[in-house]
Structure formats: structure tokens, C-alpha cells
Design goal:
The chain has one domain: Orthogonal Bundle (c-terminal domain of poly(a) binding protein). 73% of the residues lie in helices and 0% in strands. It contains seven helices and no strands. α3 (28-41) packs across α6. It is flat and about 60 Å long.
Length: 118
């Protein structure tokens, strides 16, 4: 990855297009699961989203392998896709960007109130 790709994010765009091309070859129920996985995993993104590329690559690889073996989506992912995505992102209780923003907001408010009240 060169400087220009880092600044513009063109490397991420290229990876997303490759993922979409790979996902297009999956059966319909697997494509629906892929879309749901993308939505849930995005909650664990950093500022650029680059941390998601290896996670999504692994998830799509799993879907491709199990579809080729003829397994159903339910057998592979179970009924809890958000839980599956949380486990992929690190741990079942992994913090999302919303959690980090909430904590930052709470710290800022507490700091401001501390200054005003003290």
C-alpha cells in the first residue's frame, strides 16, 4: 500500500469490489448472510475500516468453503449472526465504535461538569 492509497482509501475500495465479486458467486441464502455480516462487522471498524478487511476476507472464505461443501447457512453461522460477527471482531463483548464514542462523550461531559461545578 502506497501513500496515495492510504490517503484516498482506494485500496479499501478495491478490496470491497473484490469481496462483492466473490460474494456474487454464492447461493442466494449465502449472499443474504454476507450482507448481514458486512452490516454487523462494520460496527467494529476503526476510523478507516482497514481493520475489517482481514476479518471480512476470512468470513467470506468460510462462506465460500461451506457453500461448496453444500452446508446450509444455518449450519455454518447458526441463528445469531450478530454474535458470530462479535466473535469475529475479537471477542463476544467487543466494543463497537458507538461504545467508544459514548465513553468519550461521557468523559468530556464529566470533565466539563467537573470544571463548572468545582
Amino acid at each position: 500500500m502506497n501513500f496515495w492509497e492510504t490517503i484516498t482509501g482506494s485500496d479499501i475500495t478495491r478490496d470491497w469490489k473484490a469481496f462483492d465479486a466473490r460474494a456474487a458467486t454464492l447461493p442466494a441464502d449465502y449472499r443474504a448472510a454476507w450482507e448481514e455480516i458486512k452490516g454487523h462487522v462494520s460496527l467494529y471498524s476503526d476510523f478507516t475500516g482497514r481493520n475489517l478487511i482481514p476479518i471480512l476476507d476470512g468470513a467470506l472464505g468460510l462462506l465460500e468453503e461451506t457453500a461448496a461443501e453444500g452446508q446450509s447457512v444455518g449450519e455454518v453461522l447458526g441463528d445469531d449472526i450478530p454474535g458470530f460477527c462479535a466473535a469475529l471482531a475479537g471477542e463476544a463483548g467487543g466494543r463497537s465504535y458507538r461504545d467508544r464514542w459514548r465513553e468519550q462523550l461521557n468523559r468530556n461531559v464529566a470533565r466539563k461538569l467537573g470544571r463548572l461545578g468545582g
